[in-house]
Design a protein that fits this description.
Layout: E1 8-11, E2 22-27, E3 53-54, E4 65-83, H1 89-94, E5 97-105, E6 110-114, E7 122-143, E8 152-159, E9 171-174, E10 200-201, E11 213-231, H2 237-242, E12 245-253, E13 258-262, E14 270-290, E15 299-306
Antiparallel strand pairs: 1-9, 2-4, 3-8, 4-7, 4-8, 5-6, 5-7, 9-11, 10-15, 11-14, 11-15, 12-13, 12-14
């Protein structure tokens, strides 16, 4: 059943932290793939929640591990994990997820965590900042899938406590939001997760996205001068062509001033500059739309404001 969520106000509490560069991945084992799909550890850092690492050991893979390498020794404070198989809700429930997690650093020290059994990105913080050149995640316990014993992990980000380059909203308000379906949700905070296959989509079933809007609430005055974004459905060129995307918009600032902006019809990352404004909120209204070939829904995969 299709139902739009009109004028939705959403508040998100994930802390602001800078993601660090991951230079390599390895694993104790991986489930064999085929010509259409693989389950290699590189999937954990490809910016897509729908591609996953699945351990290839017997049973649920207790003791299996996956490791990410950093760009030399870095000081890190935590991880952000997309636990389980995020290809669809059904796949998430059918495959096992990590429950008891052991994190090992390059000096041999470890920290242990119990993860939540929910299909939401989970942020874990270390007891203190760690200097390390790698992070190894070991499976010590699982939440069992209802069909398959393979334990999966879809994406991982490593962060320190340096501020993000973008201005993190404390809340969003939208004219409408497409309802959650078998593939996942389409909430506006997806636009800041760094993943190209999670996105905000408008939920007005009678329109093509023209006139729809998103309001970014920064919780206080900020100087903004750039909008960094990935337009449309950026999962692939084929999906970008299927769905609607925006080609012109208006930014309205909390002081009542506004700027017209042009957006390139591409799913590649673009940075749109405009005269600096000091504002606690920015409303982004979609004025002109490029029609997709299959779906009459407007989506934005990534959209964040920069100073």
């Amino acid at each position: 059943m299709f139902a739009a969520f009109m004028a939705t106000l959403l508040t998100f509490g994930v802390a602001s932290a800078k993601d660090l560069k991951i230079t390599g991945t390895s694993a104790s084992s991986s489930t064999p793939g085929d010509e259409n799909v693989n389950y290699e550890p590189a999937n954990l850092t490809d910016g897509k929640q729908s591609s996953v690492w699945a351990e290839g050991a017997e049973g649920s893979g207790l003791g299996s591990w996956v490791q990410v390498d950093l760009d030399g020794e870095q000081t890190i404070t935590g991880l952000r994990l997309w636990n389980g198989n995020w290809y669809t809700h059904d796949f998430w429930e059918r495959h096992s997820r990590i429950k008891d997690l052991e994190v090992e650093f390059s000096d041999g020290s470890i920290e242990k965590f119990v993860l939540k059994d929910q299909k939401l990105p989970e942020e874990i913080r270390f007891s203190k900042a760690k200097k390390t050149s790698s992070v190894k995640l070991k499976i010590r316990g699982v939440y069992s899938g209802n069909t398959f014993s393979d334990t999966c992990l879809s994406e991982i980000k490593v962060f320190d406590d340096a501020p993000n380059e973008y201005i993190k909203p404390i809340a969003y308000k939208t004219s409408s939001t497409y309802p959650e379906d078998a593939d996942g949700n389409y909430l506006p905070n997806n636009m800041e997760d760094g993943l190209v296959d999670s996105m905000w989509c408008e939920g007005n079933k009678t329109g093509d996205g023209t006139g729809e809007w998103i309001e970014f609430d920064f919780g206080g005055s900020q100087s903004v001068s750039k909008l960094k974004m990935r337009n449309g459905n950026a999962f692939s060129l084929a999906f970008f062509m299927k769905a609607n995307s925006v080609v012109a918009g208006t930014l309205t600032f909390s002081d009542g001033s506004s700027e017209k902006i042009a957006i390139k019809p591409t799913s590649m990352e673009q940075v749109i500059s405009f005269p600096a404004h000091t504002a606690s909120k920015v409303k982004f209204t979609m004025d002109e739309i490029r029609k997709g070939k299959e779906f009459n829904d407007l989506c934005l995969s990534e959209a964040v404001f920069l100073p």
